[in-house]
Design goal:
The chain is α+β, with helices and mostly antiparallel strands. The protein is built from ten helices and nine strands. Helix 4 crosses helix 5.
C-alpha cells in the first residue's frame, strides 16, 4: 500500500499549459471544433507507487498521450514528457491504459485522436522537500537544461499564485522550446496558433509544430494533418 505521505494528482489537458492563460481566448481545439477524448478514472485503479520509487521518495510531473479510436477503445499510449523517474512513468502509463475512454470528436463526429494528460506524483506534507526539488529544477533550468526549463514552465502554469506570472511562464516555455524540448515546442505553437498570451502567428506556430513533430511528438504530428489557419 502507498505510504500516506504520498498523494497522486492527475488532470486532463486540452491545450497543455493552460492555467495562466486559458481564460483569455479560445484554444486551438475549440477554434476547430475539436473535443478531445475523455478518460474515466473512476473505472480503473489508481496507479500504485512502485515500491522502489516509494522508498526513494521519487516525485515528478509527467505528460502522457493516449490514442483513442472512434469507438472509445484505446489503441496505444506513449510518454510525451517524463517525470525524471522511469518507474513512475511506466506505472502511470500502464495503469491509465487500463481505464475506459470516451472518443474524441470533430464538430460532433467521433474521430480517432490523441488525448494528452498531465500526471503529477507529489509528496503530501513534505513542503520543505518540495521546495528543494523546485529549487533544483530552477537551478538546472538556469543552466540550460531544456527539460528542466519546461518543468519550470509547468510549475509556473500549475500554481501561478505562488510561483509566478504569465511573463515568467512564457519566458521558460520559450527557453525550453528554443532548447529543443518537443513538448515545449508543441505548447508554444498552440499559443501562437490561438493568440493565447502572445500575438497570433500561424507561420511561427507551424514552424514549432514541425520542429516538435520532427522529434516524434505525436500531438504535433496529428496537428499538422490539418494546416494551421492563416
Amino acid at each position: 500500500m502507498p505510504d500516506s505521505r504520498f498523494t497522486l494528482h492527475a488532470f486532463v489537458v486540452t491545450l497543455g499549459i493552460f492555467f495562466v492563460l486559458r481564460a483569455s481566448a479560445a484554444t486551438p481545439d475549440e477554434l476547430r471544433g475539436v473535443a478531445r477524448p475523455v478518460v474515466h478514472f473512476d473505472a480503473c485503479a489508481k496507479p500504485a507507487w512502485p515500491k522502489a520509487a516509494l522508498r526513494d521518495e521519487s516525485v515528478g510531473t509527467m505528460e502522457l498521450g493516449f490514442l483513442v479510436r472512434e469507438d472509445g477503445t484505446l489503441e496505444r499510449g506513449v510518454i510525451l514528457h517524463g517525470s525524471g523517474d522511469t518507474r513512475l512513468d511506466q506505472a502511470a502509463l500502464s495503469s491509465i491504459s487500463k481505464c475506459k475512454f470516451s472518443p474524441g470528436a470533430v464538430k460532433g463526429k467521433p474521430v480517432r485522436m490523441w488525448m494528452p494528460i498531465i500526471y503529477v506524483w507529489s509528496l503530501e506534507g513534505e513542503a520543505e522537500r518540495d521546495d528543494k526539488l523546485t529549487d533544483a529544477t530552477i537551478t538546472a533550468a538556469s543552466a540550460g537544461d531544456s527539460s528542466a526549463q519546461y518543468n519550470v514552465a509547468l510549475l509556473y502554469s500549475s500554481d501561478p499564485d505562488t510561483l509566478g506570472s504569465q511573463a515568467q511562464y512564457l519566458q521558460w516555455l520559450r527557453k525550453a522550446a528554443a532548447g529543443g524540448n518537443a513538448m515545449a515546442q508543441y505548447q508554444l505553437a498552440q499559443h501562437y496558433e490561438a493568440g493565447l498570451g502572445i500575438a497570433a502567428d500561424p507561420v511561427q506556430a507551424t514552424a514549432l509544430y514541425r520542429a516538435s513533430a520532427e522529434q516524434g511528438n505525436v500531438l504535433a504530428i496529428e496537428r499538422l494533418a490539418v494546416p494551421v489557419a492563416p
